[in-house]
Amino acid sequence: MMYAVGTYLKFLFQSTNQYGVHSPFVYDYLTKCLYKRTTHQGGKILKILLKSIPYLKLSSVLLKNNNPALAKRLSQVYPFLQYDTLAADLIVIEKNQLLQIDPSWLEKHCHDESMILMEGIHHSKNFTAVWESFCEQPWVSVSIDFYDGGILFLRKEQAKQHFRIRI
Fold first, then answer.
1. Which CATH number fits domain 2-164: 3.30.70, 1.20.140, 3.10.450, 3.40.50?
2. pLDDT (tens place) for every residue of the chain, 167 residues total
3. Taking the model in full, what pTM does it have?
4. What angle do CA 148, 102, 113 make, to 5 degrees?
5. CB-CB neighbours of 133 under 10 Å
6. Are 128 and 137 within 8 A, CB to CB?
7. Contact 117/144 with Cβ under 8 angstroms?
8. Who is most buried in 86, 89, 150, 160, counting CB within 10 A?
9. Who contacts 68 (Cβ-Cβ below 8 Å, separation ≥6)?
């Protein structure tokens, strides 16, 4: 409990909104996608997923733990999505899978325009350490920490940057 309180306070002091972002890609992603109001119901992770798919024109999804409820919800909203492709546009890693992910496995299932969404990155010290290790991978160029989760992008044309954003 104390870990969660401490990390949340640290996050609040270190985080920013779109005005503290100097990357055009991340600024547009925040202002044109994540900060837009939505009629979708659900938690923060689900809303980020449902907003990101059309904005980034994602068509293939890899759900690490094969969550049937999440797959059903995504299929209802976006019936065109393909699942479990070799190189996915979107990879979703729920917090119960976070400690089991190997960086080489993850890199193998990505391509230059992939988005990786990880849930619960500040759930414990171990989860935070795994998140930080993924942010340091050479194939990750953009990382966005929004406390409840994190997003990794593999944009080779962009300089490596890390953002802490209040969503």
1. 3.40.50
2. 677 788 888 887 887 777 667 788 989 999 999 999 988 888 999 999 999 999 999 999 999 877 889 999 999 999 999 987 788 999 999 988 989 999 999 999 999 999 999 999 999 999 999 999 999 999 999 999 999 999 999 988 888 999 999 88
3. 0.91
4. 70
5. 11
6. no
7. no
8. 150
9. none
